[in-house]
Amino acid sequence: MKLVLKILLPMLLVAVKAGAVEPVREFHPEITSLRDSVALFTLPDSSFLSAAIEIRASVTKPSEKATIRSNGFAAVMNGTDGSAIEAWLIPTADDYDPISRKRQAAFMLILRRPGVSDSVLVSKTISGCVAPADGFNTLGMEMDSGRNLTVYAGDRKPEDIATLQNITLRPVATGVISRGTTAVELIVTETVPDPAAALSTGKTPQEIAGIFNWRQPEGPEGIWHFLDRDTDNRSIRLGGEYTIAIVADEESAPDNNPPKSYTIIYFDGAKVENGSWKPGMKKGRLTATSFQNHYNLSWITADMQYLDTECNARLSDDKSIISFNFPIYGSTVRFSRQAASGALPTK
């Protein structure tokens, strides 16, 4: 993490934008010291692309011949099957290498599994980047969306010290293990939610279309299909010929007043990142303005990023066409209203 997780998300309109999902970072200032104990932090139940923990701590009284059983601290990830991966940093009082003239510490990466002997995946001495024995070192461990595990450690400039690929462990918790007395300066955990899960409405196109079978769509509500576009391909590109639904947010229409906001929901037609888009996912949001048939637009692009700066939508007077306008990028995309029964995805 190094306080900035190395998360790479794939990149519908490609431009400068903010992510549809942002890293969820949690600090744990209540923990300032540990002694022969474990502190675990449960990860969110929802799907996530990556998980990480970073610790900054010091072994307050390192022994000259410290071992994992008597000295040191570790970052740990616990899996769904009861297995765990522990990354141990083991400073010793005899921490100076007279040959290289660098500070050094022991490092071990251990896989623990129920009913099976522990496996030492990595065991080595790290030098140059670590603080003196009783100084503060950073120790971090992160697992990315490709199931790759990276461990880094050090004083002012932490360095990657171990990388493993195709890890089968699915983290459900991260934490800190202390052997001996450990002073803690920082513990931070971070997860990056899976955009597909975060954008899911939990509704199928059939359920959404059924809404309009018992009530007449008002304003921009309804099912819409791509009509045409006028885009500047130098700064923006359309991610597909979309079929979308626009549904009023019920909580935004108190006392039978007109809705103040609407959710745009993806049905079909993605070409860019088409494997990432499933029917029923959020595609954006409309917010009413003081002008009739005019709305502020927040659009979620093909690579699941928000595009909303100066974006707006305009509903034609006969309510048959809605235009999504992206003035900064000199582009407009138009959609035509569809009959609910004929606009559903075929699969």
SSE layout:
Elements lengths: L17 E2 L4 E4 L5 E3 L2 E5 L5 E12 L12 E8 L4 E7 L5 E2 L4 E12 L2 E12 L9 E7 L5 E6 L4 E6 L6 E9 L1 E13 L1 H4 L6 H10 L7 E9 L9 E9 L12 E10 L11 E7 L5 E7 L4 E3 L4 E4 L5 E6 L4 E8 L9
Antiparallel strand pairs: 1-21, 2-15, 3-15, 4-14, 5-11, 5-15, 6-7, 6-14, 7-9, 8-9, 9-10, 11-12, 12-13, 16-17, 16-24, 17-18, 18-19, 19-20, 20-21, 20-22, 22-23, 23-24
Describe the structure.
The structure is a single chain. With 347 residues, the chain is mainly β. The protein has 2 domains: 18-192, Exo-inulinase, domain 1 (Jelly Rolls); 199-342, Lipocalin (Beta Barrel), CATH 2.40.128. The protein has 2 helices and 24 strands. The chain has helices at 195-198, 205-214, and strands spanning 18-19, 24-27, 33-35, 38-42, 48-59, 72-79, 84-90, 96-97, 102-113, 116-127, 137-143, 149-154, 159-164, 171-179, 181-193, 222-230, 240-248, 261-270, 282-288, 294-300, 305-307, 312-315, 321-326, 331-338. β11 and β12 form a beta hairpin.
